[in-house]
C-alpha cells in the first residue's frame, strides 16, 4: 500500500532520520464479512481496535525500540498484545505523522487485510494467549460500521475517547480502503459530535 500524504504527514524514511524522536507503530486489521446484525443489518467489514489499559480506544501496536526496524517492532508488539504472530511488511504502511500532543513522537500507521477466519483467530488468541490481556489491553473490539437509530453504531463508537491520533487514523483508513463512504463518515462524525454534547441522551 502506497504511503498517503496528508497535511500533517511525514515520509517514513524522513521521520527515521530525525534525531531524538521515538516511533510508535499501530495497525488496523480488517476483513470482509457477510454476517448480518440481528439477521438484517449487513456488518460488511470487521475492523479491529482495542480498549487500552487507560480506558481509551486505540489500535494494537506500540513503541518501537531504537534497535528495531518499524515492522519488526510492530510485529513484536502484536505478539504481546494479540498472542499470535501477525507479520507486518513495509507494504502494509499507510501513513506516518508527528503525534498531535506528544513532542518528538512519530506515529506510523499500517493497515492489513485478513480473511474473516484469521480475524476470528486473532480475537481468540488475544483473550487466551496474549501476555498483555487484562493488563495493557483490556480487550479487542470490533468497530460497528453501520448506522442504527438514535446515533447507534458508528456515530456512537466515534463519540468515545481515543488515544492520540487513532480516531483520525480510523476515519482516514475507512475512507481510503473503501469500507465506509465519505458521505457516511461525514454523517457519522456529525452525529458523534451531537452525542458527545448530550452523552446521556440514549
Ligand atoms: O492507535 C494508536 N494510534 C496512534 N497513536 C497511538 C495509538 N496508540 C497509542 N498511540 C501513541 C500514544 C502512545 O503514548 C504511544 C505509544 O503507544 P502504546 O501503544 O501505548 O505503546 P507501548 O505499548 O507503551 O509500547 O503511541
What can you see in these coordinates?
- This protein has a domain at 12-144: Nucleoside Triphosphate Pyrophosphohydrolase (Alpha-Beta Complex), CATH 3.90.79.
- The protein has helices spanning 12-16, 70-82, 116-128, 154-158, 166-176, 182-197, and strands spanning 22-32, 36-37, 41-42, 45-52, 57-58, 61-64, 93-98, 105-113, 137-142.
- Strands 1, 4, 5, 6, 7, 8 and 9 form a 7-stranded mixed sheet that branches. The protein has a two-stranded antiparallel sheet with strand order 2-3.
- It contains 6 helices and 9 strands.
- Bound molecules: ligand L6YBMIIZ.
- Belongs to the Nudix hydrolase family. NUDT16 subfamily.
- Its main location: nucleus.
**Structural class based on helices, strands and sheet pairing:** alpha+beta
Q: What is the fold-level CATH name, i.e. the topology of one domain?
A: Nucleoside Triphosphate Pyrophosphohydrolase
What is the CATH H-level superfamily of one domain? Nucleoside Triphosphate Pyrophosphohydrolase
Number of helices: 6
Bound molecules: the ligand O=c1[nH]cnc2c1ncn2[C@H]1C[C@H](O)[C@@H](COP(=O)(O)OP(=O)(O)O)O1
The main β sheet shows up as:
7 strands, mixed
Short description:
The protein has 6 helices and 9 strands; from the N terminus they run H-E-E-E-E-E-E-H-E-E-H-E-H-H-H. The protein is α+β, with helices and mostly antiparallel strands. Strand 4 (45-52) and strand 5 form a beta hairpin.
Amino acid at each position: 500500500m502506497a504511503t498517503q500524504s496528508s497535511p500533517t504527514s511525514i515520509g517514513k524514511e524522513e521521520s527515521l532520520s530525525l534525531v531524538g524522536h521515538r516511533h510508535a507503530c499501530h495497525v488496523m486489521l480488517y476483513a470482509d464479512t457477510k454476517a448480518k446484525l440481528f439477521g438484517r443489518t449487513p456488518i460488511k467489514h470487521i475492523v479491529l481496535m482495542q480498549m487500552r489499559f487507560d480506558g481509551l480506544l486505540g489500535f494494537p501496536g506500540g513503541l518501537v525500540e531504537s534497535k528495531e526496524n518499524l515492522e519488526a517492532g510492530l510485529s513484536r508488539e502484536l505478539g504481546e498484545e494479540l498472542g499470535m504472530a501477525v507479520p507486518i511488511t513495509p507494504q502494509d504502511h499507510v501513513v506516518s505523522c508527528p503525534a498531535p500532543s506528544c513532542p518528538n513522537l512519530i506515529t506510523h500507521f499500517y493497515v492489513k487485510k485478513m480473511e474473516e477466519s484469521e480475524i476470528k483467530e486473532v480475537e481468540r488468541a488475544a483473550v487466551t494467549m496474549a501476555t498483555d490481556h487484562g493488563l495493557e489491553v483490556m480487550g479487542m473490539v470490533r468497530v460497528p460500521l453501520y448506522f442504527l437509530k438514535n446515533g447507534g453504531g458508528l456515530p456512537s463508537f466515534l463519540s468515545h475517547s481515543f488515544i492520540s491520533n487513532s480516531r483520525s487514523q480510523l476515519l482516514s483508513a475507512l475512507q481510503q480502503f473503501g469500507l465506509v463512504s465519505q458521505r457516511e463518515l461525514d454523517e457519522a462524525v456529525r452525529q458523534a459530535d451531537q452525542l458527545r454534547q448530550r452523552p446521556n441522551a440514549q
